[in-house]
Amino acid sequence: MNEMLDLKLVLLRGESQGPIEMDGLGRSSRLRMQLQKKSELSDRLAVNLLGLIADGRLAPGARIPPERQIAETLSVSRICVRSALDRLKENGYIESVQGAGTRVVRSSEKLDQLYAANLENVNDLGNFCGYLDEFLAEWVDLSEQAEEVATILQPLLAVARSSRRFDPETEYRVRCQLARASRSPGLELLLRRMARGYRCYYNSVPPIDRISDRLAEAAGAMVAAARAGDKTALILAMRDYNSILRSAVIAGAGGPARRAADTELVLRELNAHQPEKLSDIIAREIAGMLARAEGREEDVLIGERRLADVFGVSRVSIRHALQKLKEDGIVTSRERFWTRAAKGDEDAVREARDSFEASVREFKLLCNLRHFQEVWAARRAARHASDKDKADLRRILAEMRRPIDSLDRSIDLDLNLHLTIARSAGSALHFFVNEVLRGTVTNYFVYTLKNPDLRGPREVLLKQHEAIVSAILAGDEDGARDAMERHVRFFQNNYDAYMVSSSAA
Length: 505
What we know:
This protein is mainly alpha-helical. It has helices at 3-13, 41-54, 67-74, 78-90, 109-139, 142-162, 168-181, 185-193, 195-203, 212-228, 231-251, 263-270, 278-294, 304-311, 315-327, 346-353, 360-384, 387-401, 407-425, 428-436, 438-450, 452-455, 458-473, 477-504; strands at residues 94-97, 101-104, 331-335, 338-341.
């Protein structure tokens, strides 16, 4: 993966490591999509500092808070802080100043690259946040939640009417509440994981005194439309609101804000929440495995060693996760090396089965979100794909043309192709969404390609993939967009027809 894409991903993730094995994309070897392991505190601290430098809150020449002060604020060791600072020094973002501690370098090629990466993220986030607002509005039920949604949107109107500085936290909180109102665990997860991205975008909005009247008018229209239960009017008002913000961001683009660093603000920003425990993540994934198929009474789970390989973690982490599931009554240990679904615990398994991956509504909702992303990525890939990207796409397509006996192999190649297109697009945001929803992404390919009513004949899929890749290789942006649109529409139509026939049966 190129250095710029890597840097943009780091700024969005808040940590340097990711769950998708990037080196495996475009190759014929098996693709692995692993759990994202808990990053070291020093890694997160370094990336948080990097984010403050990228958006200008730590401007060139700004002094970094003292090592001791950072350690006390975050309740971490000074060794942890020193490790983070040393990493940024090695990468050329900060420097030691004799008698004055540490400061951001005044200028460097690395700093310019960081600003460019942040600006590209802001541009992508502006488009995606606007789309996601309309998506959230589409999935809330105004027939039952009109007053609730109007109340959620009210703070946007209050901020605009006050004509004070734009409030990123209010904007982000409103989106999280809309995701909760949509009753979609998947959207809630996406909003939580996109916290850094949202704040990055909203922090780039300049003072709103010149646009406050227009923002207030659009926000007022949003509140009124929600209260009236008019979804179409709500979406149009949201579009207007985001267009005003987007224009303001574009007008103020061109580099980070050169404002003095506020030590208190810097320390508050660095005091980020710690990542979710790895054992909790694994426990949730295993519960999902039980719910999808492997959790019938007396079914035997694969051993700790195999589970460790599946999730790419140590056996100790697997053991902790299984112990948590045991305490929750979802599994029980019957033999030294085996763990089985707990006998008689139908409620626990049913609760897992009702998780968002097993929900028909949720599956369709997240598929629609992915389809938007796929079409957008295909168009961008036609413009940005490197020679290496194109060679990788040709290689995967050549593998697809050969006789394939294993359906799992077909699924792996299909997933690999789409992720390689995502990488070729050069958009960290699109790739990040794939990382966040990797479980759903994988399940989508498994579910659709293992169901003959959904996948259709192999020859049809191959022709669709050939059309997409050919357009990307030719640099035909509209052709790539249209080919991907036909591809995802094919699955949407098949899925809708399948659900109708299943309901009738």
